[in-house]
Amino acid sequence: MITLEANYSKKIGLPGYSSHQFSVTLKSELADITQAQAESARLYAVLQSSVDHNIQQVGFLPNGNGNGNGHGHIPPVETDAWKCSDKQRDLILKITDEHKLDKAKVEQLAQDRFGKGVKSLNKLEASGLIEELLEQTGQSKPRNQRFSPPKAGGR
Amino acid sequence: MIAIIENGVGPVAEPAPPEKLKRTVSASRLNCWLQCRLKFYFRYVLKLTKPKTAALHYGSVVHLVLQQWNLTRWRRQPFEIAKLKQVFDTGWLDQGGAIDWDGEEPDQKISAWNVLERYFTDTPIKAGELPEAVEVPVEADLSSHGLPVLIGVLDLVRAGGRIVDFKTAAKTPDADMALHQNGVQLDCYSVLYREATGKRESGRELHHLIKTKVPKVIITPAEPMLEYQRNRLFRLMEDYRDGLDRGNFIPAPGFGCMGCEFMSECKKFDGGRHE
Q1: What are the angstrom distances between the C-alpha of A27 and each of A50, A56, A64, A128?
Q2: A15-32 residue pLDDT tens
Q3: pTM for this structure?
Q4: Is the ipTM of this complex over 0.85?
Q5: How many CB atoms lie within 10 A of CB A114?
Q6: 3-state secondary structure string, chain B?
Q7: Would residue B163 be called left, alpha or beta, if left means φ above 0 and alpha means ψ between -120 and 50 degrees?
Q8: Residues 85-124, chain A: which have Cβ within 8 Å of B?
């Protein structure tokens, strides 16, 4: 007996820098290895369809835009992951949260400077955005201290 | 980058263990490593600090004003020379301790502003050209090559991916020599740019601001980094990594000693190993 196990996972961005993900796994038994390719394609189609259908229900969102009961407005889905580094993403979120910056304004700043949203910024662009946010929040550092470890409440 | 020391004036800090220095590396550290490993030891391991020099302050303030000028374009704000002069005057006052000017501070200040005014007139960068990046810290994880994380701050990336580094100099540089002497730094910036954007830079430029009596601006263009240049940089980084492991802090007596701030410490240095 041959067992074929397939998993399909998807993560999507949500408003307010949130995201959610969903994955489904299926096992199928094959009598013959020659069935593997066709069965794999079938499982992929079933899994993708299932995940895509269910992931549209975004559930609870901290800013109250969610639709936990499956009804109401489904917010537009952004592109999946951040393009900058995890460290940069965390720093952007940290500055935004700690200084209670308006996320729409941060998004607009990214659009003004780079012609794209915050999540789409590459590492160079994200670094520029971070420098700008630090200056706006009075945390700008001299050049020779840019790589110092972040302090509590600061960078 | 205009010369920036990584240690300011002040008390001696805790020495940095080689393990810590091996985690990251910068163009400044690599150049110091190449120049003299004992100088590297004094500056980065023992963290000995020295008073800021007049030349360093000159370069820092020029750099500060150029940064502001680049940011102004990045923010789509109008060019206002009075505002830049204000940045210059404030920056000049912020000397962070006593500098031995030898009575030349007024002349040096005039010279620094004159060279900036010359740059604003002669620069090839048009007023409406939006930078891709201004003074951004970036890093490249080279662990897949067994190398430290490369870190650096890019002065300016012009539209289309041209990496610019600003320099102040007392005399007009020869183009070939300038590119040769700044090769490590330019190649570091290329590696950083490629890692941060996933693209190859379209070129590199050295913008020299020459502080002669009649100031000059010299632009030295360079091609994008080639494969052999990248390999050479990586070999240097390997040497840095391995040399730190061995505690390989040998002095390199030569022309560079004339301007070295650690001459007195160097003369007394006994080799550092006591078996």
Answers
A1: 15, 24, 37, 47
A2: 666 677 888 888 887 777
A3: 0.76
A4: yes
A5: 20
A6: CCCCCCCCCCCCCCCCCHHHHHHEEEHHHHHHHHHCHHHHHHHHHCCCCCCCCHHHHHHHHHHHHHHHHHHHHHCCCCCCHHHHHHHHHHHHHCCCCCCCCCCCHHHHHHHHHHHHHHHHHHCCCCCCCCCCEEEEEEEECCHHHCCCEEEEEEEEEECCCEEEEEEEECCCCCHHHHHHHCHHHHHHHHHHHHHHHCCCCCEEEEEEEECCCCCEEEEEEECCCCHHHHHHHHHHHHHHHHHHHHCCCCCCCCHHHHHCCCHHHHHHCCCCCCC
A7: beta
A8: 112-113, 122-124
Tally helices (H) and strands (E) across chain A: 4, 2
Please give the helix or strand (H or E) that residue A24 lies within, else none: strand A18-30
Rounded Cα–Cα distance for residues A12 and A22 (Å) = 9
For residue range B123-162, what is the model confidence (pLDDT) as tens digits? Answer: 999 988 999 999 999 999 999 999 999 999 999 999 999 9
Place A91 in a pLDDT band, splitting at 50, 70 and 90. very high
Interface of B with A (CB under 8 A): 1, 4-6, 8, 24, 63, 74, 76, 132-139, 151, 153-154, 157, 193, 195-198
* Nearest-neighbour CA in chain B from A112: distance (Å): 9
Selected for mutation to probe chain A from B136, B156, B162 (highest A CB count within 10 Å) is: B136
